[in-house]
């Protein structure tokens, strides 16, 4: 007897649920690997968002093609040559490329202070019209209004924040040293109020999305936590040792869920190419404050060993 449409749908849903639970342990392993601590308490903070990587990736890997704004850019004004750091843009452009590869669409979003580095990251990966740059000063409100129209016109349904500083308890965005950097930071946290599904990725407590975690945890674990903890939550939060690893974990989770179109991004040469372009555009190692092709003070060996380990777990 031929199954009815209802029976077929029920069978498909049951199969999907079963396959999801079969892949969950693999994604949980990816989540743990990405969250390995480099000195900021990420392994502990990750426990407050356990399972969120799986839920965030599953939303893109199953069902309809998604469209997302991927927001990043952390400007470092006190460096000898001020610029955005390399942590964040790599993961952001990787996620944009992955979402587009599986049939969706994505826009990389930042602000005018970070623009050179953001465009460097997007070079040879995203078309120019898929990079959105918020202006400085009073023009931001008009830009936000136009972005809202874009969201409606393109049916964008998700906003992902990766290594994007957000307001702390006193309303000011602060870096890991507790310094107020509002003067060099557009209020892109306002994109969280567009009514879209929200995902946050961070590594230090001051990024948009960390409001998902109880304040006492960040205060107790992170240096200056009581001052820097971002109060803006997201529906899912991915905590990583460095935020680029969190973006890579998202893409590797898509691969583990059957989205083999993202396979190019599992190769560390893909990441090396993006970081080379970021460095050429003036991007900084956010810990060393130098224009060198490293991330968060990590050695190249340590950084890429983790990229490769996360990829291997996905495979």
From TrEMBL:
<dbReference type="Pfam" id="PF14336">
    <property type="entry name" value="GLUCM-like_C"/>
</dbReference>
<feature type="domain" description="D-glutamate cyclase-like C-terminal">
    <location>
        <begin position="36"/>
        <end position="307"/>
    </location>
</feature>
<protein>
    <recommendedName>
        <fullName>D-glutamate cyclase-like C-terminal domain-containing protein</fullName>
    </recommendedName>
</protein>
<dbReference type="InterPro" id="IPR025504">
    <property type="entry name" value="GLUCM_C"/>
</dbReference>
């Amino acid at each position: 007897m031929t199954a009815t449409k209802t029976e077929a749908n029920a069978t498909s849903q049951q199969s999907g649920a079963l396959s999801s639970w079969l892949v969950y342990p693999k994604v949980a392993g990816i989540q743990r690997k990405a969250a390995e601590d480099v000195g900021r308490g990420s392994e502990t903070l990750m426990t407050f968002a356990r399972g969120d990587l799986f839920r965030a990736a599953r939303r893109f890997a199953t069902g309809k093609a998604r469209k997302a704004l991927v927001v990043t850019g952390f400007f470092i004004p006190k460096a000898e040559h001020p610029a955005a750091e390399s942590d964040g843009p790599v993961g952001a452009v990787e996620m944009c490329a992955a979402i587009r590869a599986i049939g969706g669409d994505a826009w990389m979003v930042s602000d005018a202070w970070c623009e050179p580095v953001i465009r460097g990251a997007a070079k040879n990966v995203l078309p120019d019209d898929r990079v959105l740059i918020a202006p400085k000063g009073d023009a931001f409100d008009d830009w936000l209004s136009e972005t809202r129209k874009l969201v409606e016109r393109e049916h964008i349904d998700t906003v992902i924040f990766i290594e994007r500083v957000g307001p702390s308890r006193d309303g000011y965005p602060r870096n890991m040293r507790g310094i107020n950097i509002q003067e060099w930071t557009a209020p892109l946290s306002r994109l969280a109020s567009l009514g879209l599904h929200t995902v946050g990725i961070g590594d230090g407590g001051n990024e948009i999305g960390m409001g998902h975690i109880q304040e006492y945890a960040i205060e107790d674990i992170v240096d200056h936590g009581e001052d820097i903890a971002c109060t803006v939550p997201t529906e899912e939060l991915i905590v990583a040792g460095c935020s680029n690893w969190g973006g890579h974990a998202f893409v590797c989770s898509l691969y583990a869920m059957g989205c083999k179109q993202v396979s190019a991004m599992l190769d560390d040469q893909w990441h090396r190419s993006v970081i080379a372009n970021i460095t050429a555009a003036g991007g900084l190692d956010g810990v060393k404050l130098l224009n060198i092709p490293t991330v968060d003070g990590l050695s190249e060996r340590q950084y890429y060993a983790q990229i490769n380990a996360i990829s291997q777990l996905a495979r």
